[in-house]
């Protein structure tokens, strides 16, 4: 039986990396692999277990069709290695940290993907972004405004609120995946 792609999306600061780190062991126990992203910024690799490459290396990998999924966002290039196709073919579910803007393209390649939108209350998101210190208050407010507009454009996804404790978010993620397990 073919595995399923689980496509985690959400605004920067919603806690995707923290959720993935906290859920890694229980997901592995359920046979779900977390794909490691390739990103063209080393600072991003600190926040997640990503593989950092130069823009030139990314372009070479993309030209060699090393990626199953690849997109650009916020001035960076992101890729998910093509090895996920072998994992899926072997019946393993694969969770990727994706992009809201690339969801339609990902669905074209993986029509049965399960999109999970990680949300967080605006005040909590604002506080997390401010505490992270990567952006000015004006940039944060612009990001929050874009996020509010973008959330209304999405459909056909499962919403997972990460405003409370990380432990409760991990439990809810596992519950959602169990509820939406493919029947074969």
Q: Can you describe what's shown?
A:
The N and C termini lie close together (7 Å). The model has no long low-confidence stretch (mean pLDDT 87). The protein has one domain: P-loop containing nucleotide triphosphate hydrolases (Rossmann fold), CATH 3.40.50.300. Helices cover 46% and strands 22% of the residues. The protein is built from eight helices and nine strands. It is globular, with a radius of gyration of 16 Å. A hairpin with a 2-residue loop joins strand 5 and strand 6 (76-81). It is of the alpha/beta class and 184 residues long. ATP binds at residues 10-17. Pathway: Metabolic intermediate biosynthesis; 5-phospho-alpha-D-ribose 1-diphosphate biosynthesis; 5-phospho-alpha-D-ribose 1-diphosphate from D-ribose 5-phosphate (route II): step 3/3. It is an enzyme of class 2 (transferase). Belongs to the ribose 1,5-bisphosphokinase family. GO terms for molecular function: ATP binding; ribose 1,5-bisphosphate phosphokinase activity.
**Integer-rounded radius of gyration:** 16 Å
Low-confidence stretches: none
Q: Whole-Å distance between the termini?
A: 7 Å
What class do helices, strands and sheet pairing give?
Answer: alpha/beta
Q: For this structure, what is the CATH class?
A: Alpha Beta
Pathway: Metabolic intermediate biosynthesis; 5-phospho-alpha-D-ribose 1-diphosphate biosynthesis; 5-phospho-alpha-D-ribose 1-diphosphate from D-ribose 5-phosphate (route II): step 3/3
Function: Catalyzes the phosphorylation of ribose 1,5-bisphosphate to 5-phospho-D-ribosyl alpha-1-diphosphate (PRPP).
Organism: Stutzerimonas degradans
Catalytic activity: alpha-D-ribose 1,5-bisphosphate + ATP = 5-phospho-alpha-D-ribose 1-diphosphate + ADP
